[in-house]
Amino acid sequence: MVRNTGRNPKDKLFEGASAFFAFAVLALTALLFVVLLRESMQAIRDFGASFLYSRTWDPVVDQYGALPFIYGTLVSSFLAILMAVPLSLGAAIFINDFAPPWLKNPVAFLAELLAAIPSVIFGLWGIFVLVPLLRDGFMKPVSKYLGWIPLFEGPAYGPSVLAASVLLAIMIVPFILSVSREVLATVPQRQKEAVLSLGGTRWEMIRIVVGQHCIPGIFGATVLGLGRALGETMAVTMVIGNRPEIFYSFFQQGYSMAAVIANEFAEAGGLQLSSLILIGLLLFLVTFVVNLASQWMLSRMVKNASRGI
Amino acid sequence: MANIFEIRNLCGWFGDHQVLKNIRMEIAKFSVTSVMGPSGCGKSTFIRCLNRMHDLTPGFRMSGEILLDDVNIASDRVDPVNLRRRVGMVFQQPNPFPRMSVFENVAVGLKLNGKKMSRGELADAVERSLNMAALWNEVRDHLDRPGISLSGGQQQRLCIARALAVEPEVLLMDEPCSALDPVSTAKIEELIEDLSEKYTIVVVTHNMQQAARISDNVAFFLLGELIEMDKSGKIFTNPSDKRTEEYITGRFG
Amino acid sequence: MPTIRLRRKAVDTTMRWTFYACAFLVILPLFLIFFDLVIKGAKELKWSLLTDLPRPVGEPGGGIANGILGSFVITLLTMLWSVPMAVMCGIYLAEYGRGKFASVVRFAVDSLTGVPSIIMGIFAYILIVLPMKRFSAWAGAVALTMIFIPIVVRTTEDMLRTVPKTVREAALALGIERWKTTLYIVVRTASAGILTGILLAMARIVGETAPLLFTALGNQFWQFRFDQPMAAMPLQVFSYAISPYEDWHDKAWAAALVLITIVLFINVGARVLTREKK
Description:
- By secondary structure, chain A is mostly helical.
- Chain A has one domain: MetI-like (MetI-like fold, Orthogonal Bundle), CATH 1.10.3720.10.
- Chain A is 76% helix and 1% strand.
- In chain A, strands 1-2 form a two-stranded antiparallel ribbon.
- In chain A, helix 1 crosses helix 11 and helix 3 packs across helix 6.
- The longest helix of chain A has 39 residues.
- Chain A is flat.
- Chain B has a single domain, classed as Rossmann fold (3-Layer(aba) Sandwich).
- In chain B, a hairpin with a 2-residue loop joins strand 9 and strand 10.
- With 278 residues, chain C is mostly helical.
- The N and C termini of chain C lie far apart (51 Å).
- The chains are: A mainly alpha (309), B alpha/beta (253), C mainly alpha (278).
- Chains A and C meet through helix 1, helix 3, helix 4, helix 5 and helix 6 of A and helix 1, helix 3, helix 4, helix 5 and helix 6 of C.
């Protein structure tokens, strides 16, 4: 009886070498988690769960709580998602179903280029172009007339949660867009044609098809975009204002988890360093779970599509 | 004439499914043997045993003996790499290496098999192989063009040249013409005849006319069993098994 | 029912224009950013920008030459070990990896892809900066490695999987050993796609700032030693941008223009490479 084995020692060596590198990648990933955990132990021991809900971040008295950062990260990311998802979905539908053929590839290509821009350049553009534009063109008029609404309260300085969210939205659009396009493309052509042949308009076709097939996939794309937004560092650091406070108005300044690491890490030591690493660990865990969720949703979507559901 | 292959009690399984049942067969040196039968009869599986192509198919196993010049190549102790250098193979779909030129396609087997050759020797070997595959005159002026830029029939002859370049003794061909047009098919059939002077050829085909045209011997497979093997003249005029007769008269298959 | 038909038609038209508007709004920032980069960057875009060291505030001239070199050095250093590691890992996953170990590796790679880049900076800080007690180019390269690897592992695996089984069979049937088949036939067949993945990952790490903030740190001067803090273009863009000085802001734009040119050159070049293959 012949077993299916490669007997050649060089084959074994090569397979072993490739397996070794695969193991190295796995080990690096594990190491990442382990060192983050180890170095944040001091902060975990000192603050425990109160780290999550304490608002004090004070190196002078060596007291650290991450609530303002967690809050700022979550609010700015969700606001970004709120803006980015409808835009990306609309653009994805445009590219897949409405664009004239000569326009499809250029638009898709340009959207991909947007994803290639380094985030520090988004930040630079945010500071000097987007923030003044928002301040003078949107925040000032709105706070003048709608300032009584808490969300739009306060003086319009410029750097703000709103600016960070808009910038984040611009940055995550390409990711949501490309995943949404893939999701939309899983709908079989014959189903679209079926709606059209029954006398439906194109919009009705989109609405029915998207409503029936694409909701989980688009949710997956959204969550993927959320993962990106949560961890984005430079652009947010440069426009959010970097004030560790709980804000109520989008016009106020805030802070994010990634931003506080970026700003304070190089000069921190002791408990402050450990607290910053703990924020990093939290960010790692949150993005990990979020990405896992999006992958799970998207893979389910693809499975459904292949089953023709 | 001496036999190059002697196959004894060859059985093959994909998982729990037995696809070859107790095959016993002898293949004469410098003969052309056709293996025919309806699809799913195990004919492709069978010739892939002859150069151990199944080694990499998960879940396949076989038992029995395949003697190549009296050495059991089905044994675990035989290195399939050396075996495949002696027993070459041409596939159903022409499959030149996509990112290689015509020249490289033929030369790569020699290069990667570790033969030390000068550039001139290599060029000679490539020309010789392309000549044997009746392709040299068509490609001599564009050897550096990608192999996949050739026509389907030319690609298949390129694959034959590639197989011949490593100087095998046996050439296995798995339905080599099924993806080709009639003109290309005729060329390949002619080529098989020419090559049979120097090589032992085993061809899988589902085309009876082709089997009749090209082969000295024909083996008829049905449901994993070798029903009958005989001289090509005999099997098509006076088969000894009723099932062979039914197949060649077109009653099934 | 003409009114209903008219209304449906009106809704259809409205939605159509909404989709057009969405596409326009998605692309618009790209043009705005490029426009501003060119307009504001051109002001300080001189030869001296590419050849000179940074100068203190108030002194005219000065450049980002050390940052360009630093980015180049750190990127190459990263790729020196990341490319073989990632490609071999991709080869393992595509050619050998079945069963539990491979799925665990695949899961790890997928997880790494989503980790925010600043966390890779923390990783390298703990691993390299703390023990060495010094910021260094080494640490920067280690941080970038963690970003580079998952991208290239994934593209390598995907590209190798697009190589048809018949190519592998053809090679094995010639009596070519399996490892040679993998390396010289299969990898070569997928080489354009793998190279594209490598270049895209390279374009990505050239522009990364966050992982370098507290690893490579940045430097005002030339630095050729890997165990010392090293300048990098994205770091210079950042520190110029957040400075309170007008003329440094101009330098930030000019440096950003140089950076985006390099990044897009690599990125678009990588795409052209795969297009040629098709």
